[in-house]
Amino acid sequence: MIGSPPPPDRILRFEDGSYFRFPAMRWSVSNFRQLMPTVSISRGLGSATPLRRAAREDIDRVVFQPLGSDRTMTWEESLKANYTDGIVVLHKGKVVYERYFGVLKPQGQHGAMSVTKSFIGTLAATLVAEGKLDPSRRVADYVPELASSAFGSATVRQVMDMTTGIRFSEDYADPNAEVWAHAAAGNPLPKPKDYTGPRSYYEFLQTVKAQGAHGEAFGYRTANTDALGWIIARVSSKSVAELLSERIWSRLGAEQDAYMSVDSIGTPFAGGGLNTGLRDLARFGEMIRNNGALNGQQIIPAEAVADIRRGGNPADFAKAGYKLLPGWTYRNMWWITHNAHGAFAARGVHGQTIYIDPKAEMVIARFASHPVAGNAANDPTSLPAYHALALHLMKRR
Questions:
Q1: Which of 126, 190, 245, 328 has its CA 20 to 30 Å from the CA of residue 395?
Q2: Of 30, 78, 114, 149, which is the active-site residue?
Protein backbone atom coordinates (compact mmCIF):
# COMPACT_ATOMS: atom_id res chain seq x y z
CA MET A 1 0.00 0.00 0.00
CA ILE A 2 2.88 2.36 -0.79
CA GLY A 3 2.43 4.90 -3.56
CA SER A 4 -0.09 7.48 -4.77
CA PRO A 5 -1.88 5.28 -5.58
CA PRO A 6 -0.15 1.96 -4.84
CA PRO A 7 0.45 -0.35 -7.82
CA PRO A 8 -2.67 -2.43 -8.66
CA ASP A 9 -1.11 -5.65 -7.41
CA ARG A 10 -0.29 -4.01 -4.06
CA ILE A 11 -3.71 -2.55 -3.25
CA LEU A 12 -5.54 -4.12 -0.31
CA ARG A 13 -9.28 -3.83 0.17
CA PHE A 14 -11.66 -4.66 3.00
CA GLU A 15 -14.47 -5.57 0.61
CA ASP A 16 -12.71 -8.51 -1.07
CA GLY A 17 -10.86 -9.86 1.97
CA SER A 18 -7.43 -9.16 0.48
CA TYR A 19 -6.52 -7.07 3.52
CA PHE A 20 -6.45 -10.15 5.76
CA ARG A 21 -4.42 -12.55 3.64
CA PHE A 22 -0.89 -13.25 4.76
CA PRO A 23 1.54 -11.52 4.33
CA ALA A 24 -0.65 -8.51 3.46
CA MET A 25 -2.17 -8.84 6.91
CA ARG A 26 1.11 -7.64 8.44
CA TRP A 27 0.30 -4.20 7.02
CA SER A 28 -3.44 -4.31 7.64
CA VAL A 29 -3.30 -5.02 11.39
CA SER A 30 -1.52 -1.69 11.85
CA ASN A 31 -3.84 0.21 9.50
CA PHE A 32 -7.39 -0.99 10.14
CA ARG A 33 -8.70 2.56 10.37
CA GLN A 34 -7.81 3.13 6.70
CA LEU A 35 -9.94 0.18 5.64
CA MET A 36 -13.13 0.21 7.72
CA PRO A 37 -15.35 2.55 9.76
CA THR A 38 -14.35 3.05 13.38
CA VAL A 39 -15.27 4.96 16.53
CA SER A 40 -12.73 6.71 18.72
CA ILE A 41 -12.00 5.86 22.35
CA SER A 42 -10.81 9.19 23.68
CA ARG A 43 -7.81 9.44 25.97
CA GLY A 44 -9.19 12.75 27.22
CA LEU A 45 -7.63 16.20 27.02
CA GLY A 46 -4.98 15.86 29.72
CA SER A 47 -1.28 15.18 29.25
CA ALA A 48 0.02 11.65 28.89
CA THR A 49 1.76 10.18 31.92
CA PRO A 50 5.28 9.19 30.82
CA LEU A 51 6.33 5.62 31.39
CA ARG A 52 9.42 5.30 33.54
CA ARG A 53 12.30 3.49 31.88
CA ALA A 54 15.03 1.14 33.02
CA ALA A 55 16.14 -0.52 29.78
CA ARG A 56 17.97 -3.83 30.04
CA GLU A 57 20.26 -5.24 27.38
CA ASP A 58 20.26 -8.83 28.68
CA ILE A 59 16.69 -9.81 27.78
CA ASP A 60 17.37 -10.84 24.18
CA ARG A 61 19.74 -13.52 25.52
CA VAL A 62 17.19 -15.16 27.84
CA VAL A 63 16.99 -18.86 26.92
CA PHE A 64 13.99 -21.18 27.18
CA GLN A 65 12.76 -24.48 25.78
CA PRO A 66 9.70 -24.27 23.51
CA LEU A 67 6.82 -26.58 24.32
CA GLY A 68 7.22 -29.95 22.62
CA SER A 69 10.80 -29.25 21.52
CA ASP A 70 14.12 -30.73 22.60
CA ARG A 71 15.99 -27.57 21.59
CA THR A 72 16.36 -24.19 23.25
CA MET A 73 15.54 -20.77 21.83
CA THR A 74 16.47 -17.25 22.84
CA TRP A 75 13.98 -14.50 23.58
CA GLU A 76 15.19 -12.60 20.51
CA GLU A 77 14.67 -15.66 18.28
CA SER A 78 11.15 -16.14 19.64
CA LEU A 79 10.04 -12.71 18.42
CA LYS A 80 10.78 -13.67 14.82
CA ALA A 81 9.16 -17.09 15.28
CA ASN A 82 5.98 -15.39 16.51
CA TYR A 83 5.85 -12.71 13.79
CA THR A 84 5.98 -10.07 16.50
CA ASP A 85 5.07 -6.57 15.34
CA GLY A 86 5.85 -4.87 18.63
CA ILE A 87 6.50 -5.81 22.24
CA VAL A 88 6.87 -3.90 25.52
CA VAL A 89 7.93 -5.44 28.83
CA LEU A 90 7.31 -3.63 32.11
CA HIS A 91 9.03 -4.70 35.32
CA LYS A 92 7.90 -3.01 38.51
CA GLY A 93 6.17 -0.43 36.35
CA LYS A 94 9.25 0.50 34.31
CA VAL A 95 9.88 -0.22 30.63
CA VAL A 96 12.78 -2.67 30.55
CA TYR A 97 12.33 -3.76 26.92
CA GLU A 98 10.62 -2.29 23.84
CA ARG A 99 10.95 -3.39 20.22
CA TYR A 100 9.06 -2.74 16.96
CA PHE A 101 9.17 -4.65 13.70
CA GLY A 102 7.77 -4.19 10.22
CA VAL A 103 4.95 -1.70 9.86
CA LEU A 104 4.21 -0.91 13.52
CA LYS A 105 5.84 2.17 15.04
CA PRO A 106 5.65 3.61 18.59
CA GLN A 107 3.17 6.25 17.41
CA GLY A 108 1.10 3.67 15.54
CA GLN A 109 -1.88 1.55 16.53
CA HIS A 110 -2.53 -2.14 16.01
CA GLY A 111 -5.51 -4.44 16.12
CA ALA A 112 -5.88 -6.10 19.52
CA MET A 113 -8.25 -8.76 18.16
CA SER A 114 -9.71 -10.80 21.03
CA VAL A 115 -7.67 -8.97 23.64
CA THR A 116 -10.70 -6.69 23.22
CA LYS A 117 -12.73 -9.31 25.08
CA SER A 118 -10.70 -8.79 28.23
CA PHE A 119 -11.41 -5.05 28.14
CA ILE A 120 -15.13 -5.79 27.84
CA GLY A 121 -14.91 -8.38 30.62
CA THR A 122 -13.12 -5.83 32.80
CA LEU A 123 -15.91 -3.30 32.25
CA ALA A 124 -18.49 -5.94 33.21
CA ALA A 125 -16.52 -6.99 36.31
CA THR A 126 -16.35 -3.31 37.28
CA LEU A 127 -20.11 -2.91 36.99
CA VAL A 128 -20.60 -6.07 39.06
CA ALA A 129 -18.21 -4.81 41.77
CA GLU A 130 -20.13 -1.52 41.86
CA GLY A 131 -23.46 -3.30 42.23
CA LYS A 132 -24.76 -2.04 38.89
CA LEU A 133 -24.83 -5.44 37.19
CA ASP A 134 -26.09 -8.65 38.80
CA PRO A 135 -24.24 -11.66 37.35
CA SER A 136 -26.90 -14.08 38.62
CA ARG A 137 -29.70 -12.49 36.60
CA ARG A 138 -30.79 -13.76 33.20
CA VAL A 139 -29.61 -12.02 30.07
CA ALA A 140 -33.22 -11.41 29.03
CA ASP A 141 -33.75 -9.35 32.19
CA TYR A 142 -31.31 -6.78 30.83
CA VAL A 143 -31.84 -7.25 27.09
CA PRO A 144 -35.42 -8.43 26.41
CA GLU A 145 -34.61 -8.52 22.69
CA LEU A 146 -32.50 -11.64 23.38
CA ALA A 147 -35.28 -13.51 25.20
CA SER A 148 -36.03 -15.84 22.29
CA SER A 149 -32.35 -16.47 21.47
CA ALA A 150 -30.14 -18.99 23.23
CA PHE A 151 -28.71 -16.14 25.29
CA GLY A 152 -32.04 -15.24 26.87
CA SER A 153 -32.03 -18.05 29.45
CA ALA A 154 -28.31 -17.80 30.28
CA THR A 155 -27.10 -15.87 33.29
CA VAL A 156 -24.86 -12.85 32.90
CA ARG A 157 -22.12 -14.81 34.70
CA GLN A 158 -22.36 -17.63 32.14
CA VAL A 159 -21.90 -15.08 29.37
CA MET A 160 -18.99 -13.42 31.19
CA ASP A 161 -17.22 -16.77 31.62
CA MET A 162 -18.28 -18.25 28.25
CA THR A 163 -20.11 -21.23 29.71
CA THR A 164 -23.23 -20.66 27.65
CA GLY A 165 -24.76 -23.47 25.63
CA ILE A 166 -24.93 -21.77 22.24
CA ARG A 167 -24.36 -22.97 18.70
CA PHE A 168 -21.43 -20.94 17.48
CA SER A 169 -18.38 -22.46 15.84
CA GLU A 170 -15.18 -20.40 16.02
CA ASP A 171 -13.45 -22.56 13.38
CA TYR A 172 -12.05 -20.05 10.89
CA ALA A 173 -11.12 -22.90 8.53
CA ASP A 174 -14.80 -23.88 8.14
CA PRO A 175 -16.59 -21.54 5.69
CA ASN A 176 -19.92 -22.62 7.18
CA ALA A 177 -18.96 -21.82 10.76
CA GLU A 178 -21.18 -19.35 12.60
CA VAL A 179 -18.21 -17.06 13.09
CA TRP A 180 -18.48 -16.16 9.40
CA ALA A 181 -22.21 -15.44 9.63
CA HIS A 182 -21.39 -13.23 12.59
CA ALA A 183 -18.73 -11.43 10.54
CA ALA A 184 -21.15 -10.97 7.64
CA ALA A 185 -23.73 -9.41 9.95
CA GLY A 186 -21.13 -7.03 11.36
CA ASN A 187 -19.68 -6.11 7.97
CA PRO A 188 -20.40 -2.38 7.56
CA LEU A 189 -20.40 -2.49 3.74
CA PRO A 190 -23.67 -2.65 1.79
CA LYS A 191 -24.97 -6.21 1.59
CA PRO A 192 -25.50 -8.06 -1.71
CA LYS A 193 -29.04 -7.84 -3.11
CA ASP A 194 -29.65 -11.52 -2.38
CA TYR A 195 -28.43 -11.28 1.24
CA THR A 196 -31.19 -12.18 3.71
CA GLY A 197 -29.23 -12.55 6.95
CA PRO A 198 -28.85 -10.21 9.93
CA ARG A 199 -27.39 -6.78 9.18
CA SER A 200 -25.83 -5.82 12.52
CA TYR A 201 -24.26 -7.47 15.56
CA TYR A 202 -27.47 -6.93 17.52
CA GLU A 203 -29.56 -8.61 14.83
CA PHE A 204 -27.15 -11.54 14.68
CA LEU A 205 -27.26 -12.15 18.43
CA GLN A 206 -31.03 -12.53 18.26
CA THR A 207 -30.60 -15.46 15.85
CA VAL A 208 -28.19 -17.53 17.99
CA LYS A 209 -29.54 -21.02 18.70
CA ALA A 210 -29.03 -23.30 21.67
CA GLN A 211 -26.57 -26.18 21.70
CA GLY A 212 -26.15 -27.97 25.00
CA ALA A 213 -26.96 -26.60 28.43
CA HIS A 214 -25.76 -23.39 29.99
CA GLY A 215 -23.18 -23.62 32.75
CA GLU A 216 -21.78 -27.05 31.96
CA ALA A 217 -18.59 -26.32 30.00
CA PHE A 218 -16.33 -23.52 28.82
CA GLY A 219 -16.62 -22.84 25.10
CA TYR A 220 -14.73 -19.98 23.51
CA ARG A 221 -17.27 -18.14 21.36
CA THR A 222 -16.98 -14.52 20.29
CA ALA A 223 -20.75 -14.07 20.26
CA ASN A 224 -20.67 -14.17 24.07
CA THR A 225 -18.63 -10.98 24.19
CA ASP A 226 -20.92 -9.16 21.81
CA ALA A 227 -23.85 -10.20 23.99
CA LEU A 228 -21.99 -8.91 27.04
CA GLY A 229 -21.31 -5.66 25.19
CA TRP A 230 -25.05 -5.27 24.62
CA ILE A 231 -25.74 -5.93 28.31
CA ILE A 232 -23.13 -3.35 29.33
CA ALA A 233 -24.56 -0.78 26.92
CA ARG A 234 -28.06 -1.35 28.28
CA VAL A 235 -26.97 -1.08 31.93
CA SER A 236 -24.73 1.96 31.45
CA SER A 237 -26.69 3.73 28.70
CA LYS A 238 -23.37 4.08 26.86
CA SER A 239 -21.70 2.11 24.09
CA VAL A 240 -18.74 0.01 25.17
CA ALA A 241 -16.47 2.48 23.35
CA GLU A 242 -17.89 5.41 25.31
CA LEU A 243 -17.73 3.55 28.61
CA LEU A 244 -14.19 2.33 27.96
CA SER A 245 -13.11 5.93 27.36
CA GLU A 246 -14.93 7.28 30.39
CA ARG A 247 -14.00 4.62 32.92
CA ILE A 248 -10.53 3.50 31.80
CA TRP A 249 -8.84 5.06 28.76
CA SER A 250 -9.17 8.69 29.80
CA ARG A 251 -7.73 7.82 33.22
CA LEU A 252 -4.69 5.76 32.17
CA GLY A 253 -2.50 8.67 31.15
CA ALA A 254 -2.57 7.13 27.67
CA GLU A 255 -0.47 8.57 24.85
CA GLN A 256 -3.01 7.95 22.10
CA ASP A 257 -6.72 7.62 21.54
CA ALA A 258 -7.75 4.06 20.86
CA TYR A 259 -10.49 3.08 18.43
CA MET A 260 -12.93 0.26 17.68
CA SER A 261 -14.33 -1.03 14.42
CA VAL A 262 -18.11 -0.76 14.09
CA ASP A 263 -20.94 -2.37 12.14
CA SER A 264 -23.32 -0.65 9.74
CA ILE A 265 -25.29 1.02 12.57
CA GLY A 266 -22.21 2.09 14.51
CA THR A 267 -22.16 -0.68 17.10
CA PRO A 268 -18.58 -1.26 18.35
CA PHE A 269 -17.30 -4.80 17.79
CA ALA A 270 -16.99 -5.92 21.42
CA GLY A 271 -15.61 -9.30 20.44
CA GLY A 272 -12.46 -8.06 18.71
CA GLY A 273 -12.58 -4.52 17.32
CA LEU A 274 -10.18 -2.65 19.61
CA ASN A 275 -7.04 -0.97 18.23
CA THR A 276 -4.48 0.71 20.52
CA GLY A 277 -0.93 1.95 20.77
CA LEU A 278 1.41 -0.67 22.21
CA ARG A 279 2.56 1.38 25.19
CA ASP A 280 -1.04 2.14 26.10
CA LEU A 281 -1.84 -1.57 26.02
CA ALA A 282 1.01 -2.01 28.51
CA ARG A 283 -0.40 0.78 30.67
CA PHE A 284 -3.72 -1.04 30.86
CA GLY A 285 -1.93 -4.26 31.83
CA GLU A 286 0.04 -2.43 34.54
CA MET A 287 -3.19 -1.00 35.94
CA ILE A 288 -4.64 -4.50 36.17
CA ARG A 289 -1.41 -5.81 37.77
CA ASN A 290 -1.74 -3.09 40.40
CA ASN A 291 -5.25 -4.20 41.35
CA GLY A 292 -6.97 -1.48 39.34
CA ALA A 293 -4.75 1.43 40.35
CA LEU A 294 -2.37 3.53 38.26
CA ASN A 295 -0.79 6.98 38.51
CA GLY A 296 -2.01 7.41 42.07
CA GLN A 297 -5.70 6.75 41.38
CA GLN A 298 -7.99 3.76 41.66
CA ILE A 299 -9.31 3.37 38.12
CA ILE A 300 -11.39 0.23 38.56
CA PRO A 301 -12.37 -1.50 41.81
CA ALA A 302 -9.74 -3.81 43.26
CA GLU A 303 -12.57 -6.28 43.79
CA ALA A 304 -13.02 -6.53 40.00
CA VAL A 305 -9.37 -7.50 39.49
CA ALA A 306 -9.52 -9.97 42.39
CA ASP A 307 -12.49 -11.64 40.74
CA ILE A 308 -10.60 -11.92 37.44
CA ARG A 309 -7.56 -13.45 39.14
CA ARG A 310 -9.75 -15.91 41.04
CA GLY A 311 -10.36 -17.76 37.79
CA GLY A 312 -13.15 -20.05 36.72
CA ASN A 313 -14.09 -23.68 37.19
CA PRO A 314 -11.19 -25.99 36.16
CA ALA A 315 -13.56 -28.82 35.27
CA ASP A 316 -15.53 -26.56 32.93
CA PHE A 317 -12.37 -25.36 31.21
CA ALA A 318 -10.88 -28.84 30.85
CA LYS A 319 -13.84 -29.89 28.70
CA ALA A 320 -12.72 -27.45 26.00
CA GLY A 321 -9.63 -29.59 25.32
CA TYR A 322 -6.84 -26.98 25.23
CA LYS A 323 -3.86 -29.33 25.29
CA LEU A 324 -1.32 -26.52 25.58
CA LEU A 325 -3.17 -24.87 28.50
CA PRO A 326 -3.39 -27.56 31.21
CA GLY A 327 -4.79 -26.31 34.48
CA TRP A 328 -5.94 -22.98 33.05
CA THR A 329 -9.40 -21.46 33.48
CA TYR A 330 -11.37 -18.51 32.07
CA ARG A 331 -13.00 -15.72 34.06
CA ASN A 332 -14.48 -12.38 33.03
CA MET A 333 -13.06 -12.82 29.52
CA TRP A 334 -9.50 -13.33 30.87
CA TRP A 335 -7.32 -16.45 30.64
CA ILE A 336 -5.98 -17.57 34.03
CA THR A 337 -2.90 -19.85 34.13
CA HIS A 338 -3.09 -20.85 37.83
CA ASN A 339 0.69 -21.33 37.69
CA ALA A 340 2.99 -20.73 40.66
CA HIS A 341 3.22 -17.03 39.75
CA GLY A 342 -0.54 -16.49 39.44
CA ALA A 343 -0.09 -15.30 35.86
CA PHE A 344 -3.09 -14.40 33.72
CA ALA A 345 -3.55 -13.04 30.22
CA ALA A 346 -5.64 -11.36 27.56
CA ARG A 347 -5.24 -13.23 24.28
CA GLY A 348 -6.15 -12.55 20.66
CA VAL A 349 -5.78 -14.36 17.36
CA HIS A 350 -2.54 -14.02 15.39
CA GLY A 351 -0.61 -13.48 18.63
CA GLN A 352 -2.02 -10.43 20.44
CA THR A 353 -1.24 -10.60 24.16
CA ILE A 354 -1.26 -8.91 27.52
CA TYR A 355 0.56 -11.28 29.91
CA ILE A 356 0.59 -10.33 33.59
CA ASP A 357 2.84 -12.11 36.10
CA PRO A 358 2.05 -10.70 39.57
CA LYS A 359 4.86 -12.55 41.39
CA ALA A 360 7.50 -11.30 38.95
CA GLU A 361 5.87 -7.82 38.86
CA MET A 362 5.97 -8.13 35.07
CA VAL A 363 3.62 -7.07 32.29
CA ILE A 364 4.15 -8.02 28.64
CA ALA A 365 2.17 -6.32 25.88
CA ARG A 366 2.65 -7.81 22.43
CA PHE A 367 1.16 -7.20 18.99
CA ALA A 368 1.80 -9.75 16.26
CA SER A 369 0.65 -10.94 12.84
CA HIS A 370 1.23 -14.69 12.90
CA PRO A 371 -0.07 -16.29 9.69
CA VAL A 372 -2.08 -18.85 11.71
CA ALA A 373 -5.00 -17.38 13.64
CA GLY A 374 -5.17 -19.76 16.60
CA ASN A 375 -2.83 -19.14 19.53
CA ALA A 376 -1.88 -22.81 19.56
CA ALA A 377 0.45 -21.89 16.68
CA ASN A 378 2.50 -19.45 18.76
CA ASP A 379 1.95 -20.66 22.34
CA PRO A 380 4.86 -23.17 22.21
CA THR A 381 7.34 -20.33 21.68
CA SER A 382 5.43 -17.69 23.66
CA LEU A 383 4.24 -19.12 26.98
CA PRO A 384 7.57 -20.66 28.05
CA ALA A 385 9.36 -17.48 26.90
CA TYR A 386 7.15 -15.34 29.12
CA HIS A 387 7.77 -17.54 32.14
CA ALA A 388 11.51 -17.69 31.48
CA LEU A 389 11.64 -13.90 31.31
CA ALA A 390 9.70 -13.64 34.56
CA LEU A 391 12.21 -15.88 36.30
CA HIS A 392 15.07 -13.89 34.78
CA LEU A 393 13.68 -10.55 35.99
CA MET A 394 13.14 -11.93 39.49
CA LYS A 395 16.85 -12.74 39.81
CA ARG A 396 17.72 -9.05 39.87
CA ARG A 397 15.29 -7.12 42.01
A1: 328
A2: 114
